[in-house]
Specification:
The chain is about 60% helix and about 0% strand. It is built from 4 helices and no strands. The protein is mainly alpha-helical.
C-alpha cells in the first residue's frame, strides 16, 4: 500500500513539474535570473530531480547513491528536453 501511495504522489508531482517546464517556449528562459529570482527554473528542476533520485535510490533502495547537490545549482543551459 505504501509503495503505491508513494508512486502515485511521485507520478502526480513529476507530471506537474513536466507541465511547468513544458510551458517555457524559449529554452533560454529556463536559466534566467532576474530581480528576486535567484535560482532559475532549470536549476530548481534539477534540484527537485536530485532530491527525488536521492530519496528513491538512497533512502528506499539503499543503493549508496552519491548526490551532487552543488551541480544542481551550478549546471546551466541543459536542454529542456534533457530536463523533461
Amino acid at each position: 500500500m505504501k509503495i503505491f501511495y508513494f508512486s502515485s504522489i511521485f507520478e502526480r508531482d513529476l507530471k506537474s513539474l513536466r507541465n511547468e517546464i513544458s510551458l517555457y517556449n524559449n529554452e533560454a528562459d529556463l536559466w534566467k535570473v532576474k530581480g528576486e529570482i535567484k535560482n532559475p527554473a532549470g536549476n530548481l528542476a534539477l534540484h527537485l530531480l536530485g532530491n527525488l533520485n536521492f530519496f528513491i535510490a538512497e533512502t528506499l533502495g539503499k543503493a549508496n547513491y552519491v548526490r551532487k547537490r552543488e551541480e544542481e545549482f551550478s549546471n546551466k543551459n541543459i536542454s529542456k528536453e534533457k530536463i523533461l
